[in-house]
Amino acid sequence: MAETIRRPGLDxxxxxxxxxxxxxxxxxxxxxxxxxxxxLSAAFEARLHSAYLYGSIPRGTARLGRSDLDLFVVLRxxxxxxxxxxxxxxxxxxxxxxxxxxxxGTLLYGRDxxxxxxxxxxxxxxxxxxxxxxxxxxxxxxxxxxxPDSLLARETNxxxxxxxxxxxxxxxxxxGTEEARRPLVRFMSRHLVRTGFTLVMPxxxxxxxxxxxxxxAFAAHYPQRGxxxxxxxxxxxxxxxxPEVLRTYVDDLGPWLAGEYARVHGVKAPRPD
Length: 273
What we know:
This protein has eleven helices and four strands. The chain is an alpha+beta fold.
């Protein structure tokens, strides 16, 4: 029997190791992180349970003027529309004030939702493995350890078929300029690459957040689609504003990937929303 190869991103027991830390934040981005921490505290005060960084900044791979600031905010109760408006305004202010970053993306959830059974292998995994604590109590203490298995694959990205109609609407609603399309290309490219990677993750037996490495892992198992995912990985870092790229994502690569994902891992358990 062939020996199973253990890839990077796992600890000595084969669990996914938590990536990122505040110590890895590049010096140029530390004022941005400090401002985000202070403003989140001021905006939500006692209602804030915890806040986290994720993405290239806590991994230490952020690029000046090119990388965005990614925040995950947890409130003690379910967020309201006003809370969502508040984090949106906070992000816009940070983006305007700090040229080091190219946008701010904030995920906002309530503590009970994040720790609920349906989210244990989705939002829970995301916080426990991909997020770096910034404020408050670390919810990873209440969550299990995770292996790169089919259950994790299904519950993280097994909903692409439901996502594609929303993408088509976003594309239709986007102003017809390259500048307006570029953020969509970046977002959808990253999503598709990560979905392609988690499709093969149990066979690859490891974890990485590097889009190019994800694409290569996928291509080793699906060479007929490898070139598409490699290109998507490049666009995840350097997006273009070509409408044909978006059309290909929702009419070709996306539907194929959704069908293959359901065949291999099944479909993600339904969520209330």
